[in-house]
Structures are given as structure tokens and as C-alpha cells.
Amino acid sequence: MNKYSLVLSPLVLALAACTASNPEPATRATDGQQPLDDASALQAADEFLMRVAKHCGKAYEGRIVANEPKPSEPDAFEGKRLVMHVRGCDNPRERLEIPFHVGDDHSRTWILTRLPQGLRLKHDHRHQDGSADDMTMYGGDSHEAGSAERQAFPVDAESIAMFKKGGLNASLENTWAMEIHPQTFVYELSRPNGRMFKVEFDLTRPVELPPAPWGW
Hints:
Layout: H1 39-53, E1 59-68, E2 82-85, E3 95-102, E4 105-115, E5 118-125, E6 138-141, E7 150-154, H2 157-166, E8 175-180, E9 184-190, E10 196-207
Antiparallel strand pairs: 1-2, 1-10, 2-3, 3-4, 4-5, 5-6, 7-8, 8-9, 9-10
């Protein structure tokens, strides 16, 4: 499988009339979370970003803890050393860059950006010569407050258009999520059809810094 495996179906790839008793979904809490027009949403986004930023300059090894349903093709991640590196910390309250190294493949970087209404996650993919991949800068914005520990990013319109153009229809309902806890960091991809891919990184044991991601 190629490096699009966080997008492609084998491994990777995300509201009705209202009344006083039935508010619009856009302003209603879901799964216990606050809507984004609440001030708590902004506080949660800031706290989440700063918890990740505490690890600036450090790298951590991870392992796959969920990959369902099991892919029928060879898995690009299984058996590879998985390392995240928190860098790009010049303005950590506004932006963080987290390269995700898969063995000797240094093509992936997660980019977290602070928005007026929450957070944005984008996936930067590059070739070894540093040039942008055709499938790059996909992701989404947080639609709910989330928490200081977890933020979710449903696929945005720009990414949907990109996936359609590339024939990646399995990715049209992607939702990515990240979690930060005292001992672990989690990267997650899910879809309504039951697809779940999750990598958990051990924050208690920093590892040697990997090389710079391609093109950075």
C-alpha cells in the first residue's frame, strides 16, 4: 500500500427544522460536548493546543491499537516504526507541526492551527524531493468544543472535493481525532461504517529525534 494509506480505504481515509424544544443541531451539544459558540469551546481548544505544545522538541514512538476492519491488503503501517515529533513551535498558541514518521517514510506532517472558532487539522504530504503530493492538505475543522484532552475534525468541503477528484470515495465521511493525556497521545481516523484506525504514542519515553520531514 502507498503513503495515502491514511486516506485510502484499506487503512485510512468524515443537520432539520427547529422548535423551542428542538434547537438546531448546529447549536446543540452532542455526546456531552459544548457547541462551538460557547466560550468554553475556545478555552478547550487553547488548552488542548498548549498541552500538545508542552512536548515541543520531543519525539515519541507509537503503536497501532485499533485497525478495524482488518485490511485485506498488506498494511503500510504494520511492522514499521511509528514516531511523532512535535515541532514547528515558533508560535505554539496558533500553530503546531507534528511530523508522523512511518519507518523510512517521512512524507507526513500533521498541522494543527488555531482558528477563531476552534482548531483545524491538516495533513501535509510531500514527496522525497520536497514537492507537494497530489493528495495533500486534507483534513477538517473542529465543529464542537471537544475538551482539553480530545478534539475531533470532520472532513471539510475542500478535502471532500479533493477525495472525489482522486476517486477516494471511502474517505468522504472521514473524521480525524487527537487525544492528549499525561502518558499518551492518540491519533485516530474513523468513519460511520465502523472503520477505526488508531495509533497511541507513549509520552513517558522520549526517543531520538527523527530526521526532518521531507520538504521541511
